[in-house]
């Protein structure tokens, strides 16, 4: 009989390197279900509760916390312990009275930052694509799998472009602010060797014949050091300072 789909299992040694698991003690590890984030850019809820936040001591306790409806991801109750949590997701654990945001982090790639209650409804999302839908409306396809439809005849038309960032309210998906990707904007690196670094965009080098996502971007951090990465690895987070909390302190 032919193989149907991808493997349903994941070995500890081949799991993403930023998962804080005991790779040589156990052969198998939880494999996240298909969802808003790819395998190499997400953390399953069970590992987040047990190994990252250490709210539970073992898988049974972590599953009980999740099954009881104590975990909210972007304002929605998630009872799937394999649900993938990724970039900029807001996770609230009602039982522990704790809210966190998943952010890019140097070396660890993805980690969390504690956020105040008033920020638990705010999320930054990046526009990955635009689609023309019924009645001439524009559908914005965002990095976390969600879609927002922009009416064709709105009172204040805004030119949304791919790789721009939106500050939205969750779970209603109401757009609060639009931050275009351009020079002098503040951005964070979400992938590559400079992941987690924050800097102001100094230059965007787009060449004819090159895909836009491979354009070279030069950024300058708070110390005045300049570094480069590609456009696909950058997410705008504000103008002079981040619109939301992205690091402790």
From TrEMBL:
Domain KOW per the UniProt entry, residue ranges: 180-207
The keyword Magnesium appears for this protein: no
Highest taxon of the lineage: Archaea
Listed SMART domains: KOW, S4
UniProt keyword annotation of RNA-binding present: yes
GO molecular function, one term: rRNA binding
Keywords from the UniProt entry: Ribonucleoprotein, Ribosomal protein, RNA-binding, rRNA-binding
Transmembrane feature ranges: none
GO CC terms: cytosolic small ribosomal subunit
InterPro entries per UniProt: KOW, Rib_uL2_dom2, Ribosomal_eS4, Ribosomal_eS4_central_region, Ribosomal_eS4_central_sf, Ribosomal_eS4_KOW, Ribosomal_eS4_N, S4_RNA-bd
Family annotation (Pfam families): Ribosomal_S4e, RS4NT, S4
Domain RNA-binding S4: 44-108
GO biological process: translation
Entry's family note: Belongs to the eukaryotic ribosomal protein eS4 family.
Name of this chain's protein: Small ribosomal subunit protein eS4
Taxonomic source organism: Ignisphaera aggregans
Upper classification of the organism: Archaea, Thermoproteota, Thermoprotei, Desulfurococcales, Desulfurococcaceae
Gene: rps4e
